[in-house]
Amino acid sequence: xxxxxxxxxxxxxxxxxxxxxxxxxxxxxxxxxxxxxxxxxxxxxxxxxxxxxxxxxxxxxxxxxxxxxxxxxxxxxxxxxxxxxxxxxxxxxxxxxxxxxxxxxxxxxxxxxxxxxxxxxxxxxxxxxxxxxxxxxxxxxxxxxxxxxxxxxxxxxxxxxxxxxxxxxxxxxxxxxxxxxxxxxxxxxxxxxxxxxxxxxxxxxxxxxxxxxxxxxxxxxxxxxxxxxxxxxxxxxxxxxxxxxxxxxxxxxxxxxxxxxxxxxxxxxxx
Length: 271
Prior knowledge:
The chain is mainly alpha-helical. The model has no long low-confidence stretch (mean pLDDT 91). α3 (52-65) packs antiparallel against α10 (235-251) and α4 runs antiparallel to α5 (103-120). The chain contains eleven helices and two strands, in the order ααααααββααααα. It has a two-stranded antiparallel sheet.
């Protein structure tokens, strides 16, 4: 059975439990707009987000209410999250380092700035170093970096021992400011640019090392609570089952998701 788009944030293929939850949806018939909005909110959730705990609470409340006004694009214009101010400070810190750097390090630091800035302002472009936008690995130098091929290749071939080899280019590609461990990840990248290739802690990105999230206990408690919400055959039960499955899949990703999120360096860069 084809995987429905609701599950795009936690699975690559269906399984019997997902299929059973999809059958619950089918039995409900046409879904009210509020119910669809709640399911969409669940499908946007990322456990690695710095605000994940608050978002879990929002989703549980939305299931109870069978409606929500939360979700991407609902924040009033001009309102800034406190975390975004720290991202701006991070950009200034990285730019300060670049002022006294040699050409290669300055180029690498510029890529770090571009990655952070692209999240703060989506109109600012970031050219991926080793990843394609669909998550697949590149097999050579991107067109955007042809003029800087030496710097690009040096960055791609610089390996962090984490403990498996992780390309510095991949680490920069996956340096998401919205990640709960952004500051530590940024320091790992900056240390690697300075030549310190054995980080004190693991690099975390999306599902990579997600088992180390400080929210593990909270997620397990919520999953237990969700199994008690809603009458059989109700929209509330379907939504609770959907969130329960989503949280469990994100906390313990399936093998195929774990392989993708491991960020394994392409073989052509290992030679």
